[in-house]
UniProtKB/TrEMBL annotation:
Coiled coil: none annotated. GO terms for molecular function: dioxygenase activity. SUPFAM superfamilies: Clavaminate synthase-like. Keywords: Dioxygenase, Iron, Metal-binding, Oxidoreductase. It comes from the Bacteria. Belongs to the TfdA dioxygenase family. This is TauD/TfdA family dioxygenase. Residues 18-280 form the TauD/TfdA-like domain.
């Protein structure tokens, strides 16, 4: 009997599809090839209510690239037996966090935008979810670029954006960094990427805003003009685009392409427990 082909069913927006017919315990190279094609097509894939182990997740993720250690894995988000996994949790043990991120809101961002080679993708699995809150939102940065007015496109094409990498979005000093002497963030350590990046596999262009307008500068522009343009680009990207909302159920897996999407997370009641396990795969330097 021939194995039934996988199916991707687009849901609610231009950026996500549900995968039907994939068996995490019985798949082959052809299945992975088809999943990759859907991943590149939609940007975000969802697998509903799976029942897999941490080892299964690691094995599956390995098909999509080398593992990347997320910065938070070096702090409170390390997994006790699988170093490939970032634990996202608001629980504590002996007064110390057992995972990263707590219960606060996470604003729109692409993952580790301040790296030389930001990750290509992430695979996030729900272990335990609160009764409400903690939802994750996704949007397409392809669409953010493609729907820009012509006047804005002419301003961003060919431009580069600088991101400081000394402080995180909360104002906390990043691991291994020291307090800068200058008050001008453009003189701190940082990374320069194209403001419009071309996807290494699809060839499509996507707007690349990173994770915050604070500590970001469009290279060569006066700072006030850069700030004004970035504010306009952020407003366009997060206000005008179709957004997919993932309301988690235990076992759900979201798999996203970090090169052409952004995501954010709602806060939730700290008395509730939310535990997620995430694997991250390597990417190329944006071009």
């Amino acid at each position: 009997m021939l194995k039934e082909r996988l199916k991707a069913v687009q849901v609610e927006s231009n950026v996500c599809a549900d995968i039907e017919g994939f068996d995490f315990n019985n798949y082959d190279a052809r299945d992975i090839e088809e999943l990759r094609r859907y991943w590149l097509q939609y940007g975000v894939l969802r697998f509903k209510r799976t029942q897999i182990t941490d080892a299964d997740q690691v094995a599956f993720s390995r098909h999509f690239g080398e593992f990347v250690i997320h910065p938070k894995q070096l702090q409170e988000g390390g997994h006790p037996t699988h170093p490939e996994i970032l634990v996202i949790s608001n629980t504590t043990k002996d007064g110390k966090p057992t995972g990263a991120m707590g219960n606060s809101e996470a604003t729109w961002h692409t993952d580790t935008w301040f790296y030389e080679k930001p990750p290509a993708g992430a695979i996030l699995r729900a272990i335990k979810v609160p009764p409400s809150g903690g939802d994750t939102y996704f949007l397409s940065t392809y669409m953010a670029y493609e729907t820009l007015p012509a006047s804005l496109k002419s301003l961003v094409d060919g431009r580069q954006i600088y991101f400081q990498n000394v402080y995180d979005k909360t104002g906390k000093l990043r691991l291994g960094k020291t307090e800068p002497k200058s008050k001008d963030f453009r003189e701190w350590g940082g990374m320069v990427h194209p403001l419009v990046r071309t996807h290494g596999e699809t060839g499509r262009k996507a707007l690349y805003l990173g994770g915050t307008s604070d500590g970001a500068w469009i290279v060569g522009m006066p700072l006030d003009e850069s700030n004004a343009l970035l504010a306009e680009l952020w407003d366009h990207t997060t206000r005008d685009q179709e957004v997919f909302v993932q309301r988690w159920e235990e076992g759900d897996i979201m798999m996203w392409d970090n090169r052409c999407t952004m995501h954010r997370r709602d806060s939730f009641d700290p008395a509730s427990i939310r535990i997620m396990h995430r694997t991250t795969t390597s990417g190329e330097r944006p071009i």
